């Protein structure tokens, strides 16, 4: 939110009962006017007439849909006003709460969504009253529960109140919010007793299940609030760990016992709230100090209820019931399973029953037994096993040891005992996971129906399989990888023997594909080459019986590519595997997948994506093989890649990946071959761009992307090229080259720069003809930036450096895009440390151009004063922000030469005034952040000269560095300290704190960095006090201004993190105050 100004005064007759109802009807019936109607209704909600008109609407009948729509909007308006604190005095909150309670009781039979909004308003008022009244919850209960019709209203309030304690829409400062939260949560037992009383009260049998469900929701809501409170509010200093009697009281709580019955009976209406109660209880137990005996009783009660109810869920088809069971199982498995296996033996069969239940839900995808969409159930069951795996972490080991010791606290034992506990746990869980892994290997197979079933959900099944693969990979830590490998090896051997008989028997493709998929999951845990299954399978990949058509043909080839991807590191070390598998991917699998005909196009696309990733991984992992092999072998490997790159069935993104892979191969060539081959890769793609520019092709954007990818594809870290200060020097220049006009700089030029120079006319043409196209400028600017970054030192000596600045700068002046700016910002950051005058002057002129463009973005006004939303007067706020961010790169302390040139430039004060004008009321978060950083970078030059910097990349003497640094400090002092500049800067920063700091990312921290150097100066304190007095008292009262001033000038506070906390608390207070004033009349 930017500045908070009161709503403009509206005519007295604009917001009447009739006009508001008409606008509400128009909102629902005339969507073409929805924007204007919504704006009118928002102005109504901020007007003084909102409260009485909303009450009047609620007093009307609600028989028709239109009347109910109007009533809902009126109730919502009252909730919004209540959360904002109304425009009433603080002392009137108790009376307002009473009147709202009476109104809600009178409307108890209205639609639930209307009653819910009124209950939210009551909750907001209860929170506002926390510092004026005691027994807040009891007061509400006394006022509402006297009549039977108030029971449902009371339950709604008790459900909503703990949730609203964390609602940021309630305009209350953080300290008051925390105090209200603490005070209200102290009455938890009062709320729960009231809910239990209503739960046990006689009621119509048709209404009873729903009222009982609400009572259970009250319990889960208050328990969740305690969990959140423990996460937000730190414990008192005297209590290193938390205690909560509430968690221990659950064992005998009637509502908790009834929740257990709801799970045990698998009651349709009560199961969901019962499960929420159990999850909340278990979550609260995780946040507080363990109390083993009581905690174990609760865990066993939940586990036994779930085991009994789970048997009924297995026989049913209710997906929601299965999801509830999985959520409770996950909460148990997260930390509480030690209570089942570190006590006496009878509880361990219970663990087996729960594990079987999780396995059953995991295998739900294998049948239609659980509804029509079992994916969510199976995925949730996978999470249970993932939590069980976490029990091998040190934290849960310590907890288990404490439970085994029977102490009231976690008692770390000696290492031998800890090792024994770990081994005991592994022996207990290993058979459970061994059984689960066997089921998992069956579950992740494609069902046979996927070939014929038209509506088979491949996307969901693939997501489920990915999670299965993750679980299988991590399970190998417990059960080892040999179990899965042996199982797969036996199946593959059986397929081989069946195929070796007299009649050719092909294995079922889904079984073969499942074996390959299991290997992809086990490979990350299996040491490369230490087993026989994976190497033998890789050797057999080229000769597998791949189907020739249909879904099976695509899926089996996709999984074969996936196996190559996950084992590419091993393949890259084995020359006898690398060549045939590389040929398999590039000459067989990829061409087939690209031209396969399947009903679901996403299958072909995903298959091609996996295959392309496998090719890329193989090219990267084969560095040693490529280094040993000669240029002819590398060029031979490039041929099928070139065919794929120029093919029409490979889409844009995958073609770019293939181009990058070709660049990786090229990088292994010797220097003369590298430059020649790189240009041969770039040239055909550049010709396609020229054809598109001439109108002979209609794919200019894609062609440009591939051309740019090829330009930057050569990896400098692999190429034998001098790319940095640590690179080996080139051999002496051969005789004759000097005479042929080949300079030392030309001979040492990076091959990529040479290729770029050859195609520079095409790049200039793209800037000239398509500089306004972001789709074109994005790849072009990114390619140039990466090339210059990779060839940093050589780029400065290249004849392209200044043309790049000139072309990109002039293109940006004519048609600015954020991609121009991103490239220019990177270039300024890379070369700003330079002390070379031509480079520094070139960057200075570039920044001048950016300043001119930023200032030109201001919209002309019509003579009236600008509105608070100053970004409305900028044509492109994002471009202005990125332009200023380029200056942030130029003003850093490690760029003294460039900073001195910029700060002494005649055009810089105009940019500084522009920032002063725009920043205080800036409603654009990114723009506000970069302008704040601009001031912080500028103010940093005023700080004490304690800054010690590393010498830049380009070596200069310390004397030169200090001289330039002194010049920059002198220029900054002249700008800020003379002509009243210090007053303006501090005024701007204080206004930012009071209005927009919270809405700007890292706004408080950046403001702190900008303010500290100014307050360190003697004249800064007096200016700071004067500027502070000018803030409106409505935002910051005089006594808080004085406190803020005293704390800000405390030297012990100002250079610590506490200074940021001080600014944040002040900004939050101003933010809350401003939010209240926006509902006041003008």
From TrEMBL:
<dbReference type="GO" id="GO:0005737">
    <property type="term" value="C:cytoplasm"/>
</dbReference>
<comment type="similarity">
    <text>Belongs to the importin beta family.</text>
</comment>
<dbReference type="InterPro" id="IPR013598">
    <property type="entry name" value="Exportin-1/Importin-b-like"/>
</dbReference>
<keyword id="KW-0813">Transport</keyword>
<dbReference type="Pfam" id="PF08389">
    <property type="entry name" value="Xpo1"/>
</dbReference>
<protein>
    <recommendedName>
        <fullName>Exportin-1/Importin-beta-like domain-containing protein</fullName>
    </recommendedName>
</protein>
<dbReference type="InterPro" id="IPR011989">
    <property type="entry name" value="ARM-like"/>
</dbReference>
<keyword id="KW-0539">Nucleus</keyword>
<dbReference type="GO" id="GO:0005634">
    <property type="term" value="C:nucleus"/>
</dbReference>
<dbReference type="InterPro" id="IPR016024">
    <property type="entry name" value="ARM-type_fold"/>
</dbReference>
<feature type="domain" description="Exportin-1/Importin-beta-like">
    <location>
        <begin position="111"/>
        <end position="224"/>
    </location>
</feature>
<dbReference type="InterPro" id="IPR051345">
    <property type="entry name" value="Importin_beta-like_NTR"/>
</dbReference>
<dbReference type="GO" id="GO:0006606">
    <property type="term" value="P:protein import into nucleus"/>
</dbReference>
């Amino acid at each position: 939110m930017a500045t908070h100004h009161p709503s403009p005064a509206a005519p007295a007759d604009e917001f009447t009962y009739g006009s508001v109802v008409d606008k509400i009807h128009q909102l629902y019936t005339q969507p073409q006017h929805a924007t204007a109607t919504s704006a009118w209704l928002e102005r109504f909600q901020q007007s003084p007439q909102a409260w009485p008109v909303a009450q009047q609407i609620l007093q009307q009948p609600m028989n028709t849909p239109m009347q109910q729509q109007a009533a809902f909007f009126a109730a919502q308006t009252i909730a919004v006003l209540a959360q904002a604190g109304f425009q009433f005095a603080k002392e009137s909150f108790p009376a307002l709460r009473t009147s709202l309670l009476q109104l809600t009781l009178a409307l108890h039979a209205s639609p639930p969504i209307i009653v819910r909004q009124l209950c939210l308003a009551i909750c907001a008022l209860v929170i506002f009253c926390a510092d004026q009244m005691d027994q807040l919850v009891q007061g509400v209960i006394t006022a509402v529960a006297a009549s039977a019709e108030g029971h449902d209203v009371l339950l709604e309030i008790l459900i909503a109140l703990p949730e609203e304690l964390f609602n940021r829409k309630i305009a209350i400062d953080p300290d008051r919010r925390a105090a209200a939260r603490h005070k209200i949560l102290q009455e938890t037992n009062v709320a729960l007793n009231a809910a239990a009383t209503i739960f046990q009260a006689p009621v119509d049998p048709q209404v009873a299940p729903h009222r009982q469900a609400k009572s259970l929701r009250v319990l889960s809501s208050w328990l969740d609030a305690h969990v959140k409170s423990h996460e937000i509010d730190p414990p008192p200093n005297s209590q290193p760990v938390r205690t909560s009697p509430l968690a221990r009281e659950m064992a005998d709580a009637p509502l908790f016992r009834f929740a257990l019955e709801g799970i045990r009976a698998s009651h349709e209406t009560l199961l969901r709230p019962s499960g929420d109660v159990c999850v909340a209880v278990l979550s609260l137990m995780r946040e507080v100090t363990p109390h083993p005996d009581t905690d174990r009783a609760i865990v066993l009660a939940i586990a036994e209820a779930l085991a009994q109810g789970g048997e009924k869920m297995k026989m049913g088809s209710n997906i929601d019931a299965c999801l509830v069971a999985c959520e409770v199982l996950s909460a148990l498995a997260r930390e509480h399973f030690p209570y089942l296996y570190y006590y006496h033996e009878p509880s361990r069969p219970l663990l087996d029953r729960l594990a079987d239940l999780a396995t059953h839900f995991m295998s739900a995808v294998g049948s239609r037994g659980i509804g029509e969409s079992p994916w969510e159930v199976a995925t949730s069951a996978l999470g249970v096993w993932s939590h069980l795996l976490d029990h091998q972490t040190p934290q849960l080991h310590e907890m288990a040891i404490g439970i085994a010791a029977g102490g009231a606290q976690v008692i770390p034992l000696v290492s031998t005992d800890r090792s024994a506990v770990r081994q005991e746990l592994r022996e207990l869980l290993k058979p459970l996971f061994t059984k689960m892994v066997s089921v998992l290997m069956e579950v992740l197979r494609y069902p046979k129906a996927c070939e014929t079933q038209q509506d088979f959900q491949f996307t969901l099944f693939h997501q489920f399989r990915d999670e299965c693969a993750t679980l299988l990979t991590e399970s190998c830590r417990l059960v080892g990888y040999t179990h899965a490998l042996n199982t797969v090896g036996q199946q593959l051997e059986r397929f081989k023997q069946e195929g070796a008989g007299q009649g050719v028997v092909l294995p079922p493709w889904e079984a073969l594909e499942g074996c390959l998929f299991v290997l992809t999951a086990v490979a990350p845990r299996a040491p490369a080459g230490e087993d026989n299954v994976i190497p033998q399978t890789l050797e057999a990949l080229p000769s597998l019986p791949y189907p020739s058509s249909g879904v099976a043909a695509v899926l089996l080839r996709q999984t074969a590519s996936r196996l190559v991807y996950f084992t590419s590191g091993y393949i890259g070390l084995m020359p006898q595997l690398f060549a045939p598998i590389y040929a398999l991917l590039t000459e067989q699998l990829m061409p087939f997948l690209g031209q396969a005909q399947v009903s679901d196009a996403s299958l072909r696309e995903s298959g091609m994506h996996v295959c392309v990733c496998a090719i890329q991984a193989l090219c990267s992992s084969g560095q040693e093989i490529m280094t040993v092999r000669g240029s002819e072998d590398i060029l031979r490997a490039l041929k099928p890649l070139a065919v794929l790159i120029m093919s029409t069935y490979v889409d844009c993104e995958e073609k770019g990946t293939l181009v990058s892979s070709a660049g990786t191969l090229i990088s292994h060539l010797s220097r003369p071959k590298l430059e020649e081959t790189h240009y041969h890769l770039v040239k055909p793609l550049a010709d396609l761009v020229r054809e598109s520019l001439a109108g002979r092709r209609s794919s200019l954007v894609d062609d440009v992307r591939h051309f740019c990818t090829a330009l930057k594809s050569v990896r400098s870290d692999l190429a034998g090229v001098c790319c940095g200060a640590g690179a080996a020097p080139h051999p002496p220049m051969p005789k004759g080259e000097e005479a042929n006009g080949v300079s030392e700089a030309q001979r040492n030029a990076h091959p990529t720069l040479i290729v770029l120079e050859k195609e520079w006319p095409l790049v200039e043409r793209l800037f000239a003809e398509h500089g306004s196209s972001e789709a074109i400028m994005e790849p072009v600017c990114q390619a140039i930036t990466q090339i210059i970054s990779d060839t940093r030192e050589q780029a400065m000596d290249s004849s392209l450096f200044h043309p790049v600045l000139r072309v990109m700068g002039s293109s940006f002046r004519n048609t600015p895009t954020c991609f121009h700016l991103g490239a220019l910002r990177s270039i300024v950051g890379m070369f700003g440390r330079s002390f070379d005058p031509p480079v520094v002057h070139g960057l200075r002129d570039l920044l001048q151009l950016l300043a001119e463009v930023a200032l030109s973005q201001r919209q002309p006004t019509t003579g009236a004063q600008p509105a608070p939303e100053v970004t409305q007067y900028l044509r492109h706020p994002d471009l202005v922000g990125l332009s200023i961010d380029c200056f942030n790169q130029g003003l850093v302390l490690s760029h003294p030469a460039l900073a001195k040139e910029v700060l002494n430039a005649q055009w810089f004060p105009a940019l500084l005034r522009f920032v002063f004008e725009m920043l205080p009321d800036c409603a654009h978060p990114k723009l506000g952040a970069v302008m704040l950083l601009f001031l912080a970078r500028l103010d940093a030059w005023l700080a004490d000269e304690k800054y010690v910097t590393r010498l830049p990349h380009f070596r200069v003497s310390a004397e030169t560095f200090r001289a330039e640094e002194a010049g920059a400090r002198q220029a900054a002092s002249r700008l800020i300290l003379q002509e009243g500049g210090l007053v303006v800067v501090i005024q701007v920063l204080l206004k930012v704190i009071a209005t927009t700091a919270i809405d700007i990312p890292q706004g408080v921290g950046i403001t702190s960095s900008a303010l500290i150097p100014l307050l360190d100066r003697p004249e800064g304190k007096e200016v700071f006090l004067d500027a502070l007095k000018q803030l409106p008292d409505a935002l910051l009262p005089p006594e808080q201004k004085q406190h803020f001033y005293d704390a800000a000038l405390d030297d012990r506070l100002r250079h610590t993190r506490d200074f940021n906390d001080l600014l944040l608390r002040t900004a939050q207070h101003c933010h809350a105050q401003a939010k209240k004033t926006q509902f006041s009349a003008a």
